[in-house]
Amino acid sequence: PNLSNGEKGAWITPLAADPNSTSTLYIAYNKVYKSTNQGSNWTIIGSGLGSSSKEYLKVAPSNSNYIYTGVTNKLYRTTNGGSSWNEMTVPGNGVRDIAIHPTNPSTIWAVLSNYLSGQKVYKSVNGGATWTKISGSLPNIPANCIVYQNGTNDGLYVGMDVGIFYLDNLIPDWQLFNNGLPNVQVMDLDINYDIHLLYAGTYGRGLWHSGLHSNQLGGTYTVGDGQDFETLTDAINTYNNSCLSSNVVFELTDASYSSGEIFPITIHQHPSADVDKTLTIRPANGVNTNLFGGT
C-alpha cells in the first residue's frame, strides 16, 4: 500500500487477510499496519517491534486479536489486536514461517531455514514462551514454510528446499509428500478447502497443486487432556476427514466431559479394506460420562 511515511517492507512483504473479517487486512513492514476497508486506508497497530522489516505475519483463525509477526531471530505477539505487543522466544535462529492452530491461538508451529541437523520444526503451546522440537527425521536442508490442515489431528505440511513433508499425530514421523513435484525450493504453502487442494509456490518453477493427505484411521484412540485427541470434537473432525482402515474406538479418559458437543459423523471406507467399519465411543474404565446420539 501507499503509506504516507514512505516505509518499505521486505523483498517479499508479509500480508495477511483477517480470517474473521472479509474487509480487514494486515501488512508488516518495520511496523504492523491494519486496514478495515480492504486496503483503502491503513493505521499502525504495531510499533516498537525493532527496526528490521518483518518476514512473516499471521492472524489466529479463532481469535483475530492474536497476531504474530517477526524476523529470523525475533517473534512478537499481541493478544489484544495490536494495542500492546510482547517479544516471545524463538526456537533458534532462522525462523522463516509460523502456523497457528485453528481453534487455539496460543498453539503455534515454527520452521527454521538452516543447515543444523534436527532443528527444522518446533511447536509451542504457550504462544512462543517455550518450544518443543518435532523435527523427526527431516533432511538437513532449510525449511521455508508451514501450513496446518484443518479437520486433522494436527496435520502439518512443511515446504523445504527440496520438496514437501507431512506429519500428524497419527503417524510416527514426517512423510515425503511430493506427489509429482519436481526437486525445487518450496517457498509458500496454502490450502483451498473448497476444492480440497494444497498449493505450493516454488522458487523458479511456478505454482503447483495436489490433493490433501489422505489419513487412514483405525484402532483405539484416547480422548481427553493430553491424549490422542483433546476433545471428542477434534476426534470426530479427524474421523470425518479420514479413510477407515479398520474399526475405530474413541475412549473418553476425562472423569468429567464437557457437554454440548454436537456433530455429524460420516464414514469413508479405505479402498483396500474388506471389512465392515464401526465407530464406538465409550468412556474408559472408571469414567462416568453420559453420551447421547440421534439421527
Tag the structure with descriptive keywords.
four-stranded antiparallel beta sheet; 22 strands; 295 residues; mainly beta
Description:
With 295 residues, the protein is mainly β. The protein is built from one helix and 22 strands. It has one helix spanning 232-240, and strands spanning 15-17, 25-28, 32-35, 43-46, 56-59, 67-71, 74-78, 86-88, 95-100, 108-112, 121-124, 132-133, 143-149, 155-160, 164-167, 175-176, 186-192, 197-202, 207-211, 215-223, 242-252, 279-283. The chain has a four-stranded antiparallel beta sheet, with no helix packed on it. It has a four-stranded antiparallel beta sheet with strand order 5-6-7-8, with no helix packed on it. A hairpin with a 7-residue loop joins strand 9 (95-100) and strand 10 (108-112). The longest helix is centred in the last third of the chain and has 9 residues, at 232-240. It is globular. The termini are far apart.
In short:
The protein is 3% helix and 38% strand.
Structural class: mainly beta
* Number of helical regions: 1
Beta-strand content estimate:
35-45%
Give the tally of β-strands: 22
Reported for the largest beta sheet, the result is: 4 strands, antiparallel
> Roughly what is the average pLDDT, rounded to an integer?
87
Computed CA radius of gyration, to the nearest angstrom:
21 Å
Give the overall silhouette: globular
